[in-house]
């Protein structure tokens, strides 16, 4: 059965560039372009390596959705905290994590960002305030709100950014959390990375309320629909929501409309959507958009753009090289990082 | 020494730790304005204010998860569940999040958090309000599990739990909150993972924990009159279990009965029995026996409750069977 997509790109995005009116600087566009290109190429490579069975586990790619993390990263402050679910490769890259330790994590190597103990779905980088990488749909909504709770408790003006897919909004955890977050005016921004499919089930097949921006209305949570194919739109929405949180006015829900070009995971035959639908969204590609803006404004020469391409290629290649040359964790690692207590008396039968 | 109720011992532990460390706070249903569903937190709102003694809506998964997130970010939450039966709704956050955070993050984030509340049977409350969770949570690496049986242990162990850097499941009982016992005037801490020999004896070892241990105390008195000397071990901590204490006792008595309030399958009594046959095989003069709740959901009617729970008669019979006596 063909399923019509609820949010086609034309509803949220006007074709053509916004360069002439943009308030964003050359530096911002170049940073977005570099970060998103790095994410795209990292994910392309990850998909290829997965097919080649270089590593196991589940593998969920972020391709197509890059503008969300790019716009969030440019709008947030260094003390802010970030948490997401299992589609988590892009967030740490946008926050500045070395892709080498992310690739090593995919390979299950001890040099990985989680020492090879977390894998694709459980990336963490405390140094960059990236607090995971969580495998249970909706669990990060609750925990991320707890992070916001602790920031308020400590009297900081840091904000917690909590990302979720459009499938996660159907978890009861979201509603329990939204209620408390509003009641306690917690400094949190909820980001729905709305790619219209919870795995293979489209939004309209799971609910009578297809407009996800309305999900917070019964808690009177401010919300907004955002064009997720444009980092400018994401940045502005994030900034506005974060300002509200920093003023002590509580959470915001952002329904950021995006699209994943690839399947839910690497084992997804994608029979639930048409090739035309995918192609239509790809015309709105955020990386090509940024490239167009940079070229139209003549901010970078062709040679400089090639340098960026070369840098990205090198980063990805070196990540793979680093991962493949890194050792696997040794057996004793199994008994480390389970308890903070270093002499915990594990039951050891052999 | 002074005499206090179990609930007061818990309150002293929490209040002392909150005075000592600003990052400790208490949250749960009815903990603040109502002064606690079982008055454990009575007066704490007045002392610490609403920032640190926090009433939550009825949303176990939500507030438990908020506390887990807060613990990842440096706070030390105490989460009160009105009963552990309700905490089943929060099990995702306890088992999938708190217990695994340190490992999944490769040691970067840990969860110094205490989940506490009433556990086990508490009268005619029916099947959904009467379950014990020692074995459930003891099964999960990453957690620590504590079940105190008297006010002294409750205070010392709760203080240890709050200071511990790992997530702790702390199992109390609605039926014990009014129990009285002596505690020192000053501060003290009981280390996690250390069992306590509550009664010295030479003929048979009874291993138990939580409020059901009172059945062992009564049985031991009766057995004493028949010339049977019973040693009673209170595990106090269920994860990690102080196996050495049990093995040493059984090496002396050569006989063991495990008394447990909960069900028999995959239980703490199964675990102790395995451990004894593996590590004290040559010392056993009789099979390890156990007295547990019947292998059925807990029912409402008093006659069915009497039938379901461990009692003195069954315990005495089990003890005597290890001595091959009638």
Quick tags:
heterodimer; A: 350 residues; alpha/beta; Rossmann fold; six-stranded parallel β-sheet; two-stranded antiparallel ribbon; B: 326 residues; 2 domains; seven-stranded mixed β-sheet; five-stranded mixed β-sheet
Explain what you see.
- Chain A is of the alpha/beta class and 350 residues long.
- Chain A has helices at residues 9-12, 26-51, 66-75, 90-95, 99-106, 139-153, 172-183, 231-246, 275-282, 286-296, 302-325, and strands at 81-84, 130-133, 160-165, 188-194, 197-198, 201-202, 223-227, 252-257.
- Chain A has a single domain (23-333), classed as 3-Layer(aba) Sandwich (Rossmann fold).
- Chain B has two domains: 2-183, Thiamin diphosphate (ThDP)-binding fold, Pyr/PP domains (Rossmann fold, 3-Layer(aba) Sandwich); 196-322, 3-Layer(aba) Sandwich (Rossmann fold), CATH 3.40.50.
- In chain B, 36% of the residues lie in helices and 19% in strands.
- In chain B, the strands form three sheets. Chain B has a seven-stranded mixed sheet, with helices on both faces. A five-stranded mixed sheet of chain B has the order 9-11-10-13-14, with helices on both faces.
- In chain B, helix 1 packs parallel to helix 7, helix 3 packs parallel to helix 4 and helix 9 crosses helix 10.
- Chain B is globular and about 60 Å long.
- Chain B starts with a strand and ends with a helix.
- The model of chain B has no long low-confidence stretch (mean pLDDT 98).
- The interface between A and B is large, with 48 and 43 residues.
What order do the helices and strands come in, and which of them pair?
The complex is a heterodimer of chains A (350) and B (326).
Chain A: H1 9-12, H2 26-51, H3 66-75, E1 81-84, H4 90-95, H5 99-106, E2 130-133, H6 139-153, E3 160-165, H7 172-183, E4 188-194, E5 197-198, E6 201-202, E7 223-227, H8 231-246, E8 252-257, H9 275-282, H10 286-296, H11 302-325
Parallel strand pairs in A: 1-2, 1-3, 3-4, 4-8, 7-8
Antiparallel strand pairs in A: 5-6
Helix pairs in contact in A: 2-3, 2-10, 2-11, 3-8, 5-11, 6-7
Chain B: E1 2-5, H1 6-20, E2 24-28, H2 44-48, E3 53-55, H3 60-72, E4 76-83, H4 91-98, H5 101-104, E5 114-118, H6 134-138, E6 144-146, H7 151-163, E7 168-172, E8 180-183, E9 196-199, E10 204-208, H8 213-225, E11 230-234, E12 237-239, H9 243-253, E13 256-259, H10 268-279, E14 289-291, H11 302-308, H12 312-322
Parallel strand pairs in B: 2-3, 2-4, 4-5, 5-7, 6-7, 10-11, 10-13, 13-14
Antiparallel strand pairs in B: 1-8, 6-12, 9-11
Helix pairs in contact in B: 1-7, 3-4, 8-12, 9-10
């Amino acid at each position: 059965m063909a399923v019509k997509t609820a949010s086609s790109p034309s509803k949220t995005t006007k074709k053509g560039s916004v360069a002439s009116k943009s308030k964003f600087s050359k530096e911002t566009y170049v940073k977005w372009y570099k970060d998103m290109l790095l994410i795209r190429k990292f994910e392309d490579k990850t998909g290829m390596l997965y097919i080649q069975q270089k590593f196991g586990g589940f593998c969920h790619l972020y391709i197509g959705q890059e503008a969300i993390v790019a716009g969030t990263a440019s709008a947030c402050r260094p003390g802010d905290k970030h948490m997401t679910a299992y589609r988590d490769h892009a967030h740490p890259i946008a926050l500045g994590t070395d892709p080498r330790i992310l690739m090593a994590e995919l390979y299950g190597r001890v040099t990985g960002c989680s020492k090879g103990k977390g894998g694709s779905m459980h990336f963490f980088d405390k140094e960059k305030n990236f607090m995971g990488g969580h495998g249970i749909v909706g669990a990060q909504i609750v925990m991320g709100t707890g992070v916001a709770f602790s920031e308020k408790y400590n009297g900081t003006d840091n904000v917690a950014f909590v990302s979720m897919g459009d499938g996660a909004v159907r978890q009861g955890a979201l509603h329990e959390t939204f209620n408390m977050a509003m009641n306690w005016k917690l400094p949190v921004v909820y980001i729905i990375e709305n790619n219209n499919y919870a795995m293979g089930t489209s939004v309209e097949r799971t609910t009578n309320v297809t407009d996800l921006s309305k999900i917070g209305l019964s808690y009177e949570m401010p919300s907004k629909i955002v064009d997720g194919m444009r980092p400018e739109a994401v940045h502005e929405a994030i900034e506005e929501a974060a300002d509200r949180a920093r003023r002590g006015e509580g959470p915001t829900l952002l329904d950021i409309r995006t699209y994943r070009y690839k399947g839910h995971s690497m084992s997804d035959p994608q029979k639930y959507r048409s090739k035309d639908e995918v192609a239509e969204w790809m015309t709105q590609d955020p990386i090509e958009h940024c490239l167009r803006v940079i070229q139209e404004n003549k901010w970078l020469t062709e040679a400089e753009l090639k340098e960026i391409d070369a840098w990205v290629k090198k980063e990805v290649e070196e990540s793979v090289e680093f991962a493949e040359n890194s050792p696997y964790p040794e057996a004793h690692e199994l008994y480390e990082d389970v308890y903070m207590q270093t002499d915990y008396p594990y039951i050891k039968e052999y | 020494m002074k005499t206090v109720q179990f609930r007061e011992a818990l309150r002293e532990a929490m209040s002392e730790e909150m005075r000592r460390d600003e990052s400790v706070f208490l949250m749960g249903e009815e903990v603040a304005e109502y002064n606690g569903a079982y008055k454990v937190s009575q007066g704490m709102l007045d002392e610490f204010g609403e920032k640190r003694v926090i009433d939550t809506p009825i949303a176990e998964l939500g507030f438990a998860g908020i506390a887990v997130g807060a613990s990842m970010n440096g706070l030390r939450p105490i989460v009160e569940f009105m009963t552990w039966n309700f905490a089943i709704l929060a099990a995702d956050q306890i088992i999938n999040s708190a217990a695994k955070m340190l490992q999944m993050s490769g040691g970067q984030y840990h969860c110094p958090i205490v989940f506490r509340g009433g556990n086990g049977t508490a009268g005619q409350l029916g099947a959904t309000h009467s379950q014990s969770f020692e074995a459930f949570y003891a099964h999960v690496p990453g957690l620590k599990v504590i079940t105190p049986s008297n006010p002294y242990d409750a205070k010392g162990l709760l203080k240890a739990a709050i200071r511990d850097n790992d997530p702790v499941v702390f199992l109390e009982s609605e039926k014990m909150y009014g129990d009285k016992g002596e505690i020192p005037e000053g501060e003290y801490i009981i280390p996690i993972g250390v069992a306590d020999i509550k009664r010295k004896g030479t003929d048979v070892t009874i291993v138990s924990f939580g409020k059901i241990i009172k059945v062992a105390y009564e049985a031991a008195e009766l057995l004493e009159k028949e010339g049977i000397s019973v040693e009673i071990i209170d595990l106090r901590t269920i994860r990690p279990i102080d196996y050495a204490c049990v093995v040493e006792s059984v090496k002396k008595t050569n006989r063991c009965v495990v008394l447990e309030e909960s069900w028999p399958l995959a239980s703490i009594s199964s675990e102790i029995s395995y451990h004894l046959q593996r590590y004290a095989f040559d010392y056993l003069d009789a099979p390890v026996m156990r007295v547990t709740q019947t292998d059925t959901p807990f029912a409402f009617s008093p006659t069915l409750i009497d039938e379901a729970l461990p009692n003195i008669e069954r315990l005495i019979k089990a003890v005597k069977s290890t001595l091959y006596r009638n």
